[in-house]
Amino acid sequence: MHIVQILPELNQGGVERGVVDFSRELVRRGHGSTVISAGGEFAARIEEEGGRHIALDVCSKNPLSFPLRVLKLQAALAELKPDLLHARSRVPAWLAWFANKKLRIPFVTTVHGFNSVSRYSEIMLKGERVIYGSTAIKDYILKNYSIDESLLRYVPRGIDMDYFDPACADQAFINGFKKQHGLGGRRLVTIVGRITEWKGHGSFIRALAEVQRRHPDIVGVAAGGAWHGKDDYFDSLKKRAQELGADIRFVGSQPQVREIYALSDFIVSAASSKPETFGRTAAEALAMNTPVIASAHGGSLDILLDGENGFFFPPDDHQAMAEKLLEALGFGFSNMREHIETNFSLGHMTDTELAVYRELTDS
Q: Which stretches make up the Glycosyl transferase family domain (predicted)?
């Protein structure tokens, strides 16, 4: 099979990383893989790993350039002659839907997020099969849109278990990182993700300060850069940490996130008002045998086994988060990597997604 995936761009993000991983796995299994996007830091990896990347503007929301971009995409698809077209975001889905009217390539969409409910967002339900990656996303779809439920398919996102393997962590990086940030001999509680309000950094800092009053050996780590235009919010977080006496290291964006999981004693997924659609951070951390403390909503509800490989707390409740962190300090967690290997591995995802594709290509 030759699969074309289309998404806005290929910069940092869970969807983008998932597309790169899936492309590599398709190639490994002998399928053709093409990714169409406006480019980005991951674009070169697609080609390095045996796929093809085509740079087209499938990102801009400018309606004036829309017709020309449809024609360019249509020409690219006509030349590629793929067996299946898979759209993973709204602008690319609109472009693909119009470009594909004459070509009639089997068309699949994945609803990756809790988008605003609108006619614009409804394009993500125009696939001949509509994939969702968590129970929370399915509930969102059925609550807000009229769709034939028989077209929905559950395909949880997949973690590359060969990469996210504790045995493969770069110990030299870990030792250097700990030395650089003064973390030696401390227990590390880490939050991973871009710094924006809905990721819950504010609640994390408040919970951390409470835990540290009883356990001063605990130190917090915030791995992630400030979202574009969020510098004022970032500054307010640093000020709040200082006011509360929270010992936290803001270490910026870390490409070696595997090592960040490996050096951490606990990972906190603190999404507040906006739930995580899948919970990739939680799944990757568990694959590295690092327990997770997570907000009890969104995709994490499918991934985490409460009281076994992690704990839940009510969203945006820093007091409950602190209590769960305190409980975690003396808890014997289990079934971390094993649970992800069985249910959320890249191999499992690829098997399931290819089965969905074959429903259309084999008919």
A: 178-330
